[in-house]
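User: Can you recover a sequence for this backbone? Please restate the input before giving your answer.

Assistant: Of course. Working from this structure:
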């Protein structure tokens, strides 16, 4: 942590949801302290890569990658760019790549959860916003998993696809760290080795990103630099 500027604001997210400058460094310092305390308690062990990895790109669709698509959208250009690095490495290595997006259906009956978000999904009927961001240049053989819930594994056929391919490692990228990324890691952790490239995940809110990324590292998977993930995939290729 000594070579990291703890006071630097994130390169992604919504400005109104960032930490006050005077709180950022103390919070990150405390999170680093918590990480070490958990390690002393024998948490945050390493799962490592298995033999057959797959990559899932969570919700890098226009609804989330366009800042104008408020309130879900924000400037996550750096996350998109980092995820694209991992996608390119996965393609060169020949491992399966899956994209997810929300299964938007205006005829879907409202749920209690809709009250929590006050129509953030329903208020904009433009279904094109749920298309994968063109910067990812998704290929025809890269499946799109359309989901109703936060986790890419809940009520979808993604897990069946992974089982058919004999996958033992799931590399998770995309947004949002505290919601769909976290939920996917939570559901995957007891079946797959979970790898999270640090710069390739993000969200609107700075503190939610930092806290949930630490939780993933402590309990669910290995959080590591994008460069390390790319290096591993290059060795496979």
């Amino acid at each position: 942590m000594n070579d990291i500027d703890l006071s630097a604001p994130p390169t992604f997210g919504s400005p109104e949801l960032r930490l006050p400058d005077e709180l950022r460094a103390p919070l990150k310092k405390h999170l680093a302290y918590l990480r070490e305390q958990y390690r002393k308690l024998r948490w945050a062990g390493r799962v490592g890569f298995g033999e057959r990895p797959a990559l899932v790109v969570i919700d890098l669709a226009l609804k989330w990658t366009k800042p104008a698509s408020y309130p879900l959208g924000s400037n996550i250009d750096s996350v998109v760019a980092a995820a694209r690095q991992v996608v390119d490495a996965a393609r060169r290595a020949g491992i399966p790549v899956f994209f997810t997006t929300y299964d938007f259906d205006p005829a879907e009956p409202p749920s209690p959860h809709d009250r929590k978000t006050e129509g953030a999904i329903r208020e904009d009927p433009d279904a094109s916003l749920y298309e994968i961001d063109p910067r990812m240049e998704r290929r025809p053989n890269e499946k799109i998993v359309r989901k109703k819930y936060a986790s890419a594994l809940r009520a979808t056929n993604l897990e069946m696809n992974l089982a058919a391919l004999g996958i033992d490692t799931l590399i998770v990228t995309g947004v949002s760290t505290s919601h769909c990324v976290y939920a996917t890691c939570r559901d995957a952790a007891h079946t797959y080795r979970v790898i999270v490239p640090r710069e390739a995940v993000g969200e609107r809110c700075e503190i939610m990103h930092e806290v949930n990324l630490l939780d993933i590292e402590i309990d669910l998977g290995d959080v590591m630099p994008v460069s390390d993930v790319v290096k591993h995939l290059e060795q496979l290729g």
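That completes the design. The chain has one domain: 15-236.
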